[in-house]
Amino acid sequence: MSPKRAVLALKGLLWLGALAPGAWLLHGVFRGALGVNPIEKLTHVTGMTALVLLMLTLAISPFRRLTGWNPIIRLRRPMGLFAFFYALAHFSIWFVFDMVFNVQWMLEDIAERRFITVGMAALLVLTPLAVTSTRGWIRRLGKRWATLHKGVYVATALGVVHYFWLVKADTRLPLAFAAGLVALLVARLPRFRASAAR
Amino acid sequence: MIIRRPPDIPSSEITPEHVYVNRRAFIKAAVSAGTAGMAMGPAVLAGAEPAQSQEIPERFARLRSELDEPLNTYEAVTTYNNFYEFGTSKDDPHRNSGDFRPRPWKVRIGGEVAKPGDYDLDDLLTGLTMEDRVYRLRCVEAWSMVVPWYGFPLSRLIDRVEPTGNARYLEFKTVVRPEEMPGQRAPILNWPYVEGLRMDEARHPLTILATGLYGMDLPNQNGAPLRLVVPWKYGFKSIKSIVSIDFVEEMPMNTWQRQNSFEYGFYANVNPEVSHPRWSQARETRLPGLFKDFETMMFNGYADQVESLYAGMDLTRWK
């Protein structure tokens, strides 16, 4: 398979995989199959999907360096955008059903509840990245674009902390995400980049 | 010293006129007393239908809470709850409790009582009058339901075992059976689950031990075969699958307080004015509703009956 066709196939897989949780949720909403507390299910699944997609987005560059297969980089933008849309859906569900459209309640919660503060911060960091993900913005921002888009590490870290602070007792999964993030950051260290390039 | 008026239970919380008994207790009583059981009338037979049939007795069709709230469905009550012994997701208890064996069952009564011992549950229940009690259940996670429990006042059991003057608190423990309870195979909480009540809370007429819901035996996921129900406290106080009750002098260290004493205390009274450190307790999602717009009531709506228990206490400190 030519690299071009391989990228096309992978993009197809990405679209299928990234749309699957959303499709499953929508199907569940219309069939009433999301259980006794569908809002909780919607909130959890959209949040979890956003976090997983963010981690996968961060894994693309290390994967490229390890394998030397450069075309994979073309998956990074759609993957990041999917992550952003799930994060936006996650926030919207919370604002509509938990905050009942009440902006004052929302601001109070953002100010007083630290897990909401960091979750909100993650979304605020992601938003300009999503907006500037187009070719036009990449051109306009030049070198600053790459610096700005390092923010995805910040957003992912905030997302992991958000998850860690929200669970009541069983922290195994949030800690697994944290370990994965640390591994991805270590993979960025110049030493590892050099050895991988050899 | 404050002398309390005995709190009244609104008559609508107790099934009027009829007396229902648990199926097993009824069978046992009927066997041991010959035909005497029949004297209790046809209502007994309604309550005596096998739980396996999953047919909800007719009396529940129009039953509502004393605040005229509708009951949550049997399906909702039995497929969505917290019981970490079976997993941390709220559909885990329903999915993972199939291997659990709620019979035979013994309850160890110990500590400051005249009649300690290992009691067989069926013996312990003999002669106790079972009632339907429709209670709001408010989870500390800010969702709530209305559940028709089936049980008897804890005070009846306390009287039977004759606590001594040193008994100031009750300490309850949940069974530990990692082979039947997959959640216990990981150290998520410090097993066994422990809960406690002050003696006056335990003797309060609203406090019950439940052996069923919707007039049928408790499903495994809801704490079979015996659980506590304290409706004015957050749900985690209502400990499930109880295997021991100790009468003690010192305030017990309950599981969630041990887990995180910054977030959880001993009392855990429902209080809209005292936030959980991580979320507000002012509002709740009254399932099956979708919006978190139900205003949480002080003591979960039972303030008239229980606030005198806490007269003079700073409820922000004793959370």
Could you explain the architecture of this structure?
- The complex is a heterodimer of chains A (198) and B (319).
- With 198 residues, chain A is mainly alpha-helical.
- Chain A has one domain (3-197).
- Chain A is built from 10 helices and no strands.
- Chain A has helices at residues 3-31, 38-67, 76-98, 103-112, 114-131, 135-141, 143-149, 151-166, 172-188, 190-197.
- The model of chain A has no long low-confidence stretch (mean pLDDT 93).
- By secondary structure, chain B is an alpha+beta fold.
- Chain B has one domain: Alpha-Beta Complex (Sulfite Oxidase, Chain A, domain 2), CATH 3.90.420.
- Helix content of chain B is 17%, strand content 20%.
- In chain B, strands 3, 4, 7, 8, 9, 11 and 12 form a 7-stranded mixed sheet that branches. A 5-stranded mixed sheet of chain B has the order 2-1-10-5-6.
- In chain B, a hairpin with a 4-residue loop joins β3 (131-138) and β4 (143-153).
- Chain B is globular and about 50 Å long.
- Mean pLDDT of chain B is 87; it is low at 15-52.
- The chains are: A mainly alpha (198), B alpha+beta (319).
- Chain A binds chain B through residues 35-40, 97-100, 108-109, 112-115, 165-166, 168-170, 172, and chain B through 75-76, 79-80, 84, 88, 90-91, 141, 143, 186, 188-189, 259, 275, 278-280, 285, 287-288, 290-293.
